[in-house]
Write the structure tokens for this entry.
Amino acid sequence: MLIRQNMGMAKNVLMNFREKIFGDKRNQYQALRDAGFSDVSDAVIWGHSVVQQPVDASTQLINLRAIRQAKPELTLQTATFILNQMQQRHH
């Protein structure tokens, strides 16, 4: 069972390798599903559980770092998309 889980994680990392190297041109809604989220709301809830401070422009870099550390397979574009959705839904 543990081997199957590790293979799944490795597959996710390899799937995003191309996007990380050449830029993520995917539809971000699809990118969220590829990362294991059911929809944007699921990603936003997860993001708020990771980010333990206000979500605004002054904390954007710190929050991006926290999101990417929590889920390293996310590309910068997808992590930024999640953070932007968190900001929009917060106001």
